[in-house]
Every structure is written in C-alpha cells, then in structure tokens.
Amino acid sequence: MEGRIARELISVAFKQLEYSYAPYSHYKVGAALLTAENQIYTGCNIENAAYTPSNCAERTAIFKAVSEGITHFKAICIVGGTEGRVTDYAPPCGVCRQVMMEFCNPETFEVILAINQEKYQTFRLKELYPMGFQLSHLQNERR
Ligand code: THU
After folding, report:
1. Which of 34, 35, 60, 93 lies at 20 to 30 Å from 69 by C-alpha?
2. C-alpha 32 – ligand 1 centre gap (Å)
3. Which letter does DSSP use for residue 133 in this model?
4. Are 53 and 44 in contact (CB under 8 A)?
5. Is the CB of 45 under 6 A from ligand 1?
6. In this structure, what DSSP letter does residue 93 have?
7. Which residues are catalytic?
8. What does the pLDDT look like over 108-138, one tens digit per residue?
C-alpha cells in the first residue's frame, strides 16, 4: 500500500469519528474501506439501547458497499478511541474479521490500524485471522 493512499484512508477514517453513534460505550470507531476500483466507502459504529443490535464501523462500511453491488476490496483503515480520542490502535473484532473473510482475499487484503497520519501499522487479513472459515470450506465437504 502506497503511503499516500494509506494516509488518505486514515484521514477519511478519522472524519467518520464525528458520525459514530456510541452513547453507551463512548468508544467511537471510524472506518474507510478501499474498493478494488479505488472508491472509498465509509463506516462508523452504531450502538443501540438493546446493545446486541449494535454494528461495528468496519461492518457498516462493508455492508454499505455490498448493498450497492461492490464486493471486491483492497484495504480498510480503522481508527477508534474513547470519546473519539485516538491514543491506541483499534483492532477489528472477531465478527468483523469473519465478515472481511467473506469478501476479501486474506492473502492480500490490508488492515490499516492508525493512531495518526504518521503512526500506523498494516496487517494482512490472514495475519489477523489465520485459518478463517470461508465459502471454500462449505464446498469441500465430504459426501
Ligand atoms: N467496535 C467497532 O466499531 N469495531 C470493532 O471492531 C470493535 C468494536 C465498536 C462496537 C461498539 O460500538 C464499541 O466499539 C465498543 O465495543
């Protein structure tokens, strides 16, 4: 991933913290998803009084894209922190890693975790979610 593109994704992800709806945890998360066609889809976490209907920022971005027919992705940048103050990396939860596994190639898809424009780390999905369950497992079943 070119540094210029990573920094663009970081800046877009930070912007999403403004839209985060997190009145319960106060932990705001923003995401910027880069599609195969180099479009950027955005997401924030959206909480709910009943707690379990809450949605993570990453899944918001992925589902927005998929709902518009976009299913191929190159990278996602995630930022987060209490009250939107980003002082540490915000790694994706297990459910979001599984959703990434559905649409992204684990060998190539990049997850960018950022604290600011200078301080960020890039991981491949396979590093964050080794041996993830995917469609091919359903197709390989023995009969
Ligand atoms: N959250 C995300 O948006 N992404 C993650 O991968 C981890 C957790 C949100 C969910 C909830 O609104 C808040 O962070 C605290 O868990």
Report:
1. 93
2. 15
3. -
4. no
5. yes
6. P
7. 58
8. 999 999 999 999 999 999 999 999 999 999 9
Place of tokens 């949605």: 55
Alpha helix (H) ranges present in 17-124? 57-66, 94-103
pLDDT score at 1:
82
- What are the E-state strand segments in the chain? 27-35, 40-44, 73-82, 110-114, 120-124
| CA 20 – CA 29 distance, rounded (Å) | 6
- Nearest ligand 1 atom, CA 54: 12
| Residue 81 and residue 20 in contact, taking contact as beta carbons nearer than 8 Å | no
Contact 82, 27 (CB under 8 A): yes
Task: State if pTM tops 0.85.
Answer: yes
Q: How far is the CA of 4 from the centre of ligand 1 (A)?
A: 27
